[in-house]
Amino acid sequence: DGGITQSPKYLFRKEGQNVTLSCEQNLNHDAMYWYRQDPGQGLRLIYYSQIVNDFQKGDIAEGYSVSREKKESFPLTVTSAQKNPTAFYLCASSIDNRANYGYTFGSGTRLTVV
Amino acid sequence: AQSVTQLDSQVPVFEEAPVELRCNYSSSVSVYLFWYVQYPNQGLQLLLKYLSGSTLVKGINGFEAEFNKSQTSFHLRKPSVHISDTAEYFCAVTPGYSSASKIIFGSGTRLSIRP
Question: Would you tell me which residues 32-71 of chain A have a C-beta closer than 8 angstroms to some C-beta of chain B?
Fold first, then answer.
C-alpha cells in the first residue's frame, strides 16, 4: 500500500546536537510538508517543497533545514539553533501544489531533548 | 488570507450521545474545507472534505459535516459516538481554484467519550 513513512518514531537529542528526521513517500506526490505539533497549538508549518530541488520556509523555519534531492524523500534536520525542539513532528504530502485533495500524513516522530 | 477557528478546545460527551464539533473559517475567496482526525501518537487521517456541490458531506466512521457559506461554518457531527471516537479533530481550509495553495489548520478539538 502507498503511504508516508516517518522514522524514527521516537528520537532523543542532546543539547547542541543536530538530528535528522526521515520522511519517505511512495505515492508519487509532488509536494511535501513538515509540521510541528505542540499541545494546544495545532499544526505549524516548518518547510514545504512543491517540486524536487526546491523548497520554501513555512511559518517557523528558524532552527530547521530540509533538502529535496529525490521526489520520494524530504528529510528534516533539527539544528542546535532550534532552542525548543521537543515536539511531535509530522510529514505530509499532496498530489500537486494545490491542496484540493488534501494531505496524506505520516505517523509522526516524537523528538525529546534530554 | 484564510484562517480557521475551532471554537471548543475540548468536548466531553457520553457514549452513544450525539456530538457537534464547531468550525468557522475566514476567507475572501471560495474555499475547500476538510476535517481530519488524529488518534494518540499518530498522524492525521482525512475524515471528509468539501470541494463543491452538496453542502452536506458524509465521511468515514459515520461523521458528516455541513458547509454553510452565509455562516462561514463547517461543523462536524455524529449522531451517536463510540469510545473509539476519542481523538483530536482538526478543521482545515484552503483557497479553491488556486494554482498553488497550502492547507491552514485549526488548533484542534479534543473529543473525549465517557462510558
Answer: 33, 40-43, 45, 48, 50
C-alpha cell at B42: 499518530
CA B113 – CA B59 distance, rounded (Å): 20
Separation CA A93–CA A91 (nearest Å): 7
Triad A48, A54, A60: Cα angle to 5°: 30
Number of C-beta neighbours around residue A2 at 10 A = 9
Stretch A41-50: mean pLDDT, rounded?
92
Residue B85 has phi, psi (to 5 degrees) of -80, -5
DSSP assignment string, A32-97: EEEEEE-TTS-EEEEEEEEETTEEEE-TT-TTEEE--SBTTB--EEE-TT-S---EEEEEEEESSS
Mean pLDDT of B21-37: 92
Which residues in chain B touch residue A101, judged by CB atoms under 8 angstroms apart? 49
- Local structure of B103: helix, strand or coil: coil
Answer yes or no: are the C-beta atoms of A92 and A107 closer than 8 Å: no
CA distance B48 to B33: 9
Q: Residue A29: what pLDDT? A: 94
